[in-house]
Amino acid sequence: MKPASVKTLTCWLFLLLFIVAASPAAAQWPRMTPSKDGVPISYEVYGNGEPTLIFVHGWSCDARYWQKQIDHFSKKNRMVLLDLAGHGHSGMGRSQYTMKAFGEDVKAVVEAVGSKEVILIGHSMGGPVIAEAARLMPGRVLGLIGVDTFGNVAYPLTPEIVAGMVSPLEEDFQAGSRQFVTPMLVPDTPAPLREWILSDMAAAPPAVALSALKEMMGLFITGESAAIFQEVRLPVMAVNADLWPIDVENNRKHMASFEATVIKGTDHFLMLARPEVFNPALEEAVGKIVKRK
């Protein structure tokens, strides 16, 4: 290769690296901030623009489950992905992994990034988590968006039903986890994604997963899952799969407002399985909340 060609190639290489580094979605090291109880919480920040979008993962998941949203949403907004305590890169050390404590994790991250106006987006268990976080941050949260959650915040559960759900996980967490998560997937879920989700969630720390699951289910037994919205008087949206029904009217009895968008033919992890449909639907939900400011 001629020297001039080498020089040209080198220039192009540095230009490419600069573009990648300057991209809103450029890879970065996670940051850390302590939650109220001192547990370190890992989070990542992408893009600029208010309001800030705070993405909260579900049970036995972590920030990686939002990987297909980064490029789309970081173009217009600052977006924050976090790992709740006991998940991903965040610390452990709690005896109980309650939704309120997870809400404190979210609050700590919001304060760390200095956001004055946020929209909280929560997948699955992330739904009750963002409701708790909103209660802890009055005046700062514009609205909540559930992702395949908030199907019926007053769904009737009994201790016996919960015990039956949890028992296989207590006996053999890895096998029980796969059994628990499999119905959340659909035949069209790509095989590599299916196996990644099943294997990844089965690798969660059992003590954390069992505590979080029992605490979340307990809110439905006591009715707190619905009662919290007497304090959290914010617009609530949902972008859900069509695996389970959504009781819109019942939710509206408890919430200041509630709207739902249903994406057909996808699974519980629709942000990974169908990002080309999910991202525009989530963007529309964000837009509706912003218009209500």
From TrEMBL:
The keyword Chaperone belongs to this UniProt entry's keyword annotation: no
Presence of keyword Transferase: no
One Gene Ontology cellular component: membrane
GO molecular function: hydrolase activity
Domain AB hydrolase-1: 51-155
Keyword terms, alphabetized: Hydrolase, Signal
Extent of the signal sequence: 1-27
Pfam family, any one: Abhydrolase_1
The protein, known as: Pimeloyl-ACP methyl ester carboxylesterase
